[in-house]
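Notebook B, p. 112. Complex prediction, attempt 2.
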Amino acid sequence: MDLNDTPEQAEFRARARAWVEAHRDEAPPRHGSHEDTAYIDARRAWQRRLAEAGLAGVTWPAEFGGQGLGPIEQVTANQEISRARVPGILDVIGVGMLGPCLIAHGSDEQKARHLGPLLHADEVWCQLFSEPAAGSDLAGIHTRARQGDDGRWSLTGQKVWTTNAQFAAYGLLLARTDPDVPKHKGLTMFIVPMDAPGVSVRPLRQISGEAEFNEVFLDEVMLEPDAVVGGVGNGWGTALTVLMFERLTIGFGSESFGSPASLAAQIAADAAACADPEVRHRLGQVITDFTAVRFNGYRALTLLARGQIPGPEAGLAKVTMVNAAITATDLGADVVGPEGLAEDSEWAYLISFLPGLKSAGGTEAILRNTIGERVLGLPAEPRLDKGVPFSELRSREKEEVA
Amino acid sequence: MNLALSDEQILLREAAQTALSRHRTIEAARAALEDPAALPDLWPTAVEAGWTGLLVSEDRGGAELDAFDAMLVAEECGRVLAPVPLLGVLPATAVLDRGGHAGAERVAAGDVRAVYVPARPPCSLEPRWTVEPDRGMTRAALPTASVSGQEVTLNGAVAFVPDLPGADLLVLAAAGEDGAPVAVLLDTGADGVAIEAVTRYDATRPLGNLRLNGARGERLDADEDVLADAWYLAHALIGAESLGAVQTCLERSVEYAKERFTFGRAIGSYQSVKHELVEMLRRMENARGLEYYAGWARESGPDEFPLAASAFRSAAGEALDFAARAMINVHGGIGATWEHDAPLFFRRAELSRRLLGGTRDATDRVAERTLAEAA
């Protein structure tokens, strides 16, 4: 049992650290407004440099600009980037999830056209999956793609929770191409140019007042037949690939929510808080949870280093992390009092941000369902939609609420 | 990065399963509720398996394995509620061995039973070394030691010492004239030593109250760090026992949730039941991650061992509290009766959370270490 790098990993880490140390002064700030074009441009340029230095897209094959290495090296690179307190890549979703999906399911032309600009942030991508009426039950999406006699597709519908849509060049979109078959079967994945006529993006304000997400409206957006990824009717399988990579991205991202160190420093500086048994108890629980997540991350890295992919139980780390972060930020602000909710307080932003994070990448309830069924082998809840054509489901729903 | 069991550790765990399976420990746990004599004596099993010398160095006849290996064995004992006196013997041998004492060899060989008398290192809210009190939240002072050369005369009392009945030797901390703790080896047959065997709620966990009236023991060459290590080692071991018990609670509950039907379907298909089971799994996995941390820290990062062992005990203890109740919930009424094994695990949880300062004290120690680091 050890926490050290193998000689090869150590060499990779040394190279990553040397590059980051040499260039950290040229990095943009880690945080900035996503509505600030100059800031976004600086982040694009920084992503290009990270990719060229071999610190982004580490797991991508060399022919697409990657390093052809394993996830353990990508995690190492992320750790070094995070250690130097410089920002990572701008397009985490594109490089971590959508690019790998194109590599797995895209045509040669799609790969040749899109992967380079994606990795270098010349073209940022967004994920157009969730809809106002389909989140946990993603296969229930309504956005409709109809094929005309000329083979071209016309897309109409609405997507939501779309990160980076305001400056994305392309979106990977899941649409319904056949409503007369059961819902998982009638789906198809498309590449949508975000500047196509009929695409409109509207910012979605969150609790904090900031708009980190968007709604995306599609009104008879016309696409060529070659916009399809992975074949017509195969959209669900293609989407599952993206969700598998999402698990890796969330599980091993350099993001951590709510720094235990700054919480501890704040309490340590307050003699009354230090001696308060309840404050101490909550702090002890939070640190215990954060530490458990850290070491379970190391266990998962051990699997990755052996070429195994972590299973759905990795989602439990997200549940623990988000809830511990909520306890930590509440505790941090409790110790400060109302001033902890001041606009420039380090707690206020997180207090606003975390309730939504509970549902990001799947609600906590749906994660617990998946883990109960796939890890513990518990029987699934009986379903009323099995084998039923989507169009019939829709009319049943309408009858029930009528 | 390698946080996985080695082949040797997998073998050690399997050997423990095999050795324990020869005793019907869960049946014995039920029988012992009415007749304490029904509890099997697993000391010979521990000696035969080499567990008594697990932490003793090879040149004293031990296996010289790591605390993590000891935790793996403790986990297997916890899974089947086996009353192997690891909490008593292992920290005792750690102190003896680190103090270079020949007694470690006799314990490793199984000739004598040694038991560790837990003493809690100070923290900012309680700046003395303390022991378990008879009752209440005020910690008790260490027994006093009057030292003359290698001979120590002891006076005082310690309540609720795990595995105390049947011990031949005690390894304990006593307060010297300057208040600093002194490590002492004491023969339980010596004059002025009184041991009262007690059982509280969990029949699988023999406890003892110790009284010392001018008892004479031998000063051990072990400093405060060694005594503190023994306290955290005991926490890591009770954490591992708890984790093992959680695993059984989860396995039995999942099994039942698949075969018990209500309203035409297995109860495990209901979200409320499923989510409770997943919560057991989540807590178990968190405790398991911290078990690795505690095991790693004792060998490779001793400065972090107090934090790691405390975090592990905190997570594993809370996991067992949750799992023992959840097992009863999932089984419905039958889970609250002697017809089922659930009450045996519940009893284990209820006593474990109150021993060695209690689970809450371990959580507080995590905060203590974190704040000390941040200050």
